[in-house]
Write a structure and sequence with these properties.
single chain, alpha+beta, 5 helices, 135 residues, two-stranded antiparallel sheet
Length: 135
Amino acid sequence: MNKTTPSIVRDIMSRDCYRVSPEASITTLAKGLALHRLPGAPVVDAADRLIGFISEQDVLGRVLDSIYHDDEAPLVKELMRHEVLSVSPNKSITDLAQEMRSAKPKVYPVVEQQRLIGIVTRRDILIALLMIRRH
């Protein structure tokens, strides 16, 4: 984050974000989410275009089922949500904060020209709001 007071999503987003292929197994996804301590991940195609989103909640039951039945966990493409709330890097932090008050996602993919360029979380927004409030 830069040293000036943040005002838009680009100022606070994580550029090097965890993302997953639709062909990845749910087990691989679960390990990645745990490693990066994320509640979900954007699903991207080979050109890094956002095509879906998958959360811990989406996969929890399926991983549990695969343990009980001793079978292979499904692929991300079988469980991902195709409708994704994403955000522009130029969106105002305060506008996004207002939207986040009612929307469910904890992680928003940041998309520019249909390509995933980062993510922003509720925690990122909260920290930014505290910085804005101090100034």
